[in-house]
Structures
1.
Amino acid sequence: MPADPKERARALSTRSNMLLPGLLAWVGTVGAPAFERGVGVGPRVAACAALVAMVVGPFLTEARPWVGRAVGIHATVVLCLVTWLSLGANIGVQHLEPVRAAIGAVAWVLFAFGWGATRAPGTPEDDPRAIPGAPLPARSRLPTAAAPIFAVGLIGAALTLFAAWRVSRPSHALLSHAAAAVAAIALVTSAAKIAVDRQDYKPLTPPTARIGAAVRPLSVLAIALIVRFAWMLVE
């Protein structure tokens, strides 16, 4: 442990960022289904092993960072996956509680952020090994209307996530939220790329060439769909 009280407080804060979200995620998505009635010994052993790896990992990062990350991240996630696979139908959509599942999803995101490396306070120029010099000028400026374009994409992503909550059937709600998350990420990423690269965009190949290159794969896909549809009619 560091002798300086500030360093000890910082180390405790870092470990808390790793542990607390992970424990919340484990309780809601791993421990609760693993310790329900009728569950066998295998899932419970895997869940307990995942908890031990999750708790031990942060304390190994000080002496051996790569060992701590291997235990706290990789071993924990693998053991959680083993638990879920061994539970089988016990973690089906019909058994999910929406509130607990939502809290668990958020906790897993915070667990990932907690293990992310953060830069030390200060600026890179404060490092004694930094070479002094004049500030580097920006390579270019944002194109006109870049901010409104990105704002439109961000609003569209928010509306997509909001629309997923309109699905009332439990069996379809989980799929709708997953699809909404993927669509929101795609919208934000596309809006950022369009907003930044709009001025310097030059297609490498003409649209007709791209369409011509996709004719064969699309034809194979169409034939496969027709065969599958015909097979369904025969059955």
2.
Amino acid sequence: MHKKEVASIALMVWMLTVSNLMGVPYDSDLKFFIAVTLVGFFIIVYLIHPVFSKPAYIRNVYRMGIVCTALFGLIIFLRVLELIEYLS
């Protein structure tokens, strides 16, 4: 089994675990789910990144990482705005 196959399985297991753990207290906040899922994505990308070679799929992973970073930044920005609104 290749690293990219293991990574996709690990990401699926991570997302299912997070969604099941969020279902325990009946908390279905989509922003929280996406943020925690993206943290798992970044950890998996860090673990599968090759040190000495550059396979073709790594370019696509880099692009996906850039998009996920922008999405994560947007979620953090929206959370800060919610906190500012709550405190005022």
3.
Amino acid sequence: MAISYKPTRMEMSRLKKRLVTATRGHKLMKDKRDETVRRFITYVRRNRELRERVEELMSDAMRSFVIAKATMTRAAVEEALAVPASPARIEVGSGSVLSVEVPKLTYIPTGAGSLPYGVLGTSSELDAAVERFSELMPLLIELAEVEKTCNLLADEIEKTRRRVNALEYVMIPQLEEAIHSITMKLDENERGNLTRLMKTKEMLKAKEE
């Protein structure tokens, strides 16, 4: 939508102040967008590292579990896994990344960290599978936090990009065009007034003669 204005000096002064504010805001928004992109790339790299580690541990755990099922009886596996695992809790909070509220998840194990069953009657492969699954839990919690942060930062980057484009390609050009039009109109009025003044002076001079 075009800017509405009156061709007056007061209006031109007001538009110039708006232009200064818009230009400063454009620079700040660009700086924020660039820094948000930099932070986003850092989180994306961490997300990739965590996902690769999770997939590696999951693959190892499942491989060990399959071997354990092959070397142990079904009843022995079910009996070992029926024992409750060590309890843990997750603290949920929030943080801020460049004014973007992001989740903060903290995994806090409350148990001793050992196997939830006795090692007699179980294979080493089952022990390895359970240990791998235990290692997975804090990584999965961190992965969930990082992925959510990536999504929130991506949304913020898109919002900031739209605002930067609106200032750069819409508002600032419209303000500059309005200021230019007012300047031309005022110059035209000034030339017209000068011409009328000169004609009046000539008429008065001719009348006196």
4.
Amino acid sequence: MKLVSDSLKPYLEREPLAAFFLGISSGFPYALIGATLTTRLAQDGIDKKTVTAFTLAVLVYNLKMLWAWVVDGVRLPLLHRLGQRVSWLLFSGALVIAAVIHLGVVDPAASLEATVMAALLAGLAGATFDIVIDAYRIETLRPDQLGVGSGMCQYGWRIGAAAAGGLALVVAERHGWAMGYLACAAFALPAMVTALWLGEPARHGVVLEKQALAAIWQSISGPFVEFMQRAGAWLVLAFILVHKIGDTLASLTFRLLFNDLGYTNDEIAIYDVGFGFWAFLVGIFIGGILYSRMGLRHSVMLALWLMGISNLSFALLAAAGHSNWGMAAAIGFENLASGYGGVVVVAYFSALCNLRFTAAQYALISAAASIIGRILTGTTAGGLIQSMGYVNFYVLTTVVSLPGILLFWLMIRRGLLDAALGSAGSKA
């Protein structure tokens, strides 16, 4: 019993608990403009190429490093008295609530242009919310809490995404999509309340005191310049860019597969959202255990292999056809691998940040991690599925995961995992 108690104690500390609630709010906008919007458009009879093109709305998340410096350096009128991070959490949370409600009101069948604009606005608001949440999480956690904190944030992210996605489907089935999105807007509140409860993070760096052009340019260029001056920075950046291509390319097309296999909203809610949620939680738990026993390099390498191979399960599902057991197995394996990988990879990426540029650098890292996959999904995924079929498509997504594994192996061989870490991963 003492062993169990000691294992659970780090998860019950104030900072990791805060990371959990931050994750809840971080996950729900992405789910609503990703998988949920895909289902909504498919049910409205929109063709596959147009549906997959809508995934470009989540590409806004990959561009967030362009304005992340604003979150680090610009003070909000009146609200800034609550603190830089707290004020931005409240402001961006309010933007997300408004954008989600607007996305629910628009009718894709009446105007695709209006739906595109609403999706982009929701993506912009959600990405800004993410910038602040990530910075707040990293600066709140101590270096020794980064692993536990990333796990708790992943727990929260999955709960927020799954609960919002499931709630939207269930409510939309009975009361329409506008009510579904309206109900989900409340998921922005956990992060906003957490910021008011916990206050400004102790490790938050100094914000810009002057808004002169030179100071503003330093806030924009400084995060990138500092990162690229580290040992092996180019190899680390290459790994960040390519390690998740296959996983992103596959995951943003699952709802198309489910729709073509004839799954109902309730079946998707039960197996994809519900069963997948629990599999993800198990993966996070396993990730926490193996991370502490295997260390960073081995645990991340295992995660890369699992995330690549998990795509093959959807090739098997596509070949088998409509099968609830098959869907549960494929979703279970994919979410188990994603949950495990999320703990170790997010902890590593968080440790790469310099606390002077937390928001900007983590925005750069997290955006770079999936930008190529999202571009390929939005521009080619629908066409690839139509030309080569689902089975060959998911086999392809497994093959394109191999360059990331090779690059991480090179990083290990050259001793760059520790050499490239930032001050967020240092106890000093």
